Amino acid sequence: MPIIKVIGRRTTFRGKSLFTLLCNLKNFGKGRMVVRSLFEDRYPNEPSYYIITKAAPEMDKEFDFGEAWGSKVFRGNALGEWKIKAGHKADWRLIPKDEEHKYLQWKPTVPFEPKVIPKEALFPPLLREMIFREMEKAGKATDEDPKLPITIHETVWNRARLESNAGEISDQTSLGSKKHLDDQPASP
Amino acid sequence: MAAPRTRVTLRTLSGIYVKRYSPLNLNHHGTLCISAALPWHGLQLRRTLLSAAYSCSDTWRRRLDSPVLKHVKMDQFAIEVLNNCSKAQATAVDVDIFACNVQEPMHLTDLENILFKFRATPNTTDTLDSTHYAVVRAFLECGQRHRLMEILQNRLHYGIFPDHYSSNMLIDSFIKDKDYRGAAKVAILMMLQEDFDNVLGKLLALYACHMDLNHPLGVAVPAAENEVETPVTDNDDEVVIKRVHWIKNKFFDDHFDLVDHELLLGKTLAMLGGRYFSDTLLGRSYELIGWGLYRKWAIGIERLEKWAGSGSDDSIADEALDKFKCSLESMEEDKDGDVAKSDFVEKFERLSQKLKSSGAADKINLNELVLQEADEAILHQLEHDDIAAQQTLFSRCFEERNCHEKWGC
User: Is the pTM of this model over 0.90?
Assistant: First the structure.
C-alpha cells in the first residue's frame, strides 16, 4: 500500500462537515442543534447555533456539499431562518439533546452595552493639510479642524453604534434590521 | 413450570395464515422456540417479549392487494430503478414500491443495491417514511437480520433509520433467538439517534442492554472492528501525493465515531438510565454502570456526589457500585485529563462508603428489577397503542404512495 501524502491548506477547524452529521441522522437532522466550534471558541459567553429546519445534501463522496437551512441564533440573538452557507467547513458539532437546554435557556448575565462610536472623527494629518490648502484656495480659510463623518456598517457581526443612534441600541432585536447586501435570510 | 399455551399465527408452506392455540412455544414464524425445551429459570430466560399481534401481519400482508404493488414485476422493476439511480433520476416512490413489494429473499440483493445507489443521488432527501419500515420488515421476514444490521449501521451509504415499531420488532426478534449482542446493537442504533421516546422501545432497549451485559460473548470483540489489515506489497515505499483544497483535521466526535461495543453499550445505558429512567433506582444504577463502561469516570463520580449529597434520598443498587468499581480498576494508570486514577478511586471509595452507611446502597438484584419493568404483561398492555399507530401508518403510507404514483407529487 503506497503512502498517501495529503497536500492542501490547513485550517483550525475542529469538527465534521455539516452534511456528514446530518446524513447520520434520521430526517437529515431536522430539529437538531448544531454549532460551529469557531464561534464557540470566539464567543464563549454567547451561544451561536442553528436548529436545522431543512437539508438537501448533494451526496458527494465526502458528504461536504449541499444546502441546509436552520433557525439561526448568533451570539445570543435569534435571527430567524437562515440558509447555512458554511456547511462544507469541517467545523460542525452536533449538540446532544440533553445539552440543548444550556443553549436554549441562555440569558445574558451582563446587560449588553454596545460600543459607541462618535459620529465624526479627525482627518489623517496629510489629508488635513490638503483640505486646509484647498479651503484657502477657495477662500474659505478656517482654523476649525475639518471633521470626517463616520458611517458604521451595522450588521449582525458589527454591533457598534454611532453616538447619535445610541438610544436605539437597547433593543437587541434591532440587530437584524439592517442587513448587509450579502446576508441571505431564507426565502419566504 | 409448564410452558404456557400460545396463540400464534402460523404461515404454512402454501402461504395460508392460520391461528392456532399451540401447546408448544411457537413463534410467529411457526418455528419452535429453543427455550421451550429448557426449564424455566424464572430469572434469566425469556421466550418472547412482544406478542404476535404486534407485527400486524394481516394488515401488512394486505398492502400487496394495492393496485400500485400488485402488478409490479420485481426483476424488471429492479433493473429500471437501478438504471434510473445511475442517471440520478430514480424517485423515492419507486424505491418505496420496490421495498414494500419484497417477498422473496432473492430480491433482497436488489433492494440492497437500490438503497445504496439511491442514497448517492440528491433525491434521497425525499425518501418516504414507509421505506424505512418496509426495508426492516422485508429483511426480518426473509430471515436476513445480520445483513439488515450491516445496512442499518452504515447510515451514510444506505440511509435506513428504523422507526419505533420496526426497531421494537427487530429487538424482539433478536431477543427471541437469545442474540443479546444483536439486540443491544439495535438499542445502540436508537441511542445514536437519541430516540427512546417510544415506551415499549425504551423498555426493550433496557432489557437488551441488560442481557448483553450479563451474557458477554466468549470471544473478545476487537476494539477497532472496521480496521482492515492491508497486505504488504512491493510499492509500499511509493509516496502518492493527493492534492486537496483544505486538509480536514482529525476529529473524534465521541458519538458516531465510537466503534468499541463496550463504549457504545455504556453510552446507551447511561442515556437510558439518566434521561429515560431518571429518578428511579433502576435508572440511577444503570446510569452509573453506563458511565463506567463508557469510561467517563469523572461524570460517574459527579453523579455519585449528587446522589450522596446531604438531603438527597436517591438510592442506588450495590451491584451498580461494584460494577463501576470494576470499570474504574480497569482504568489505565496515566491521568484522565488533570485527575489521576488514584484520585478517582479515592473519591469513589469515599462516596461509596457514604452511600452504604446512609442506607442508600440497596442490595436489590438488578436482574429482577429489569424483569419487573419489562414484564410481558406490561409490555402486552403497552402494545395496543403501537398496534393502532401502525394501522394508521399503513393506511397513511398507502395513500401517500398512491398520491405520488398518480400525481407525481
Answer: no
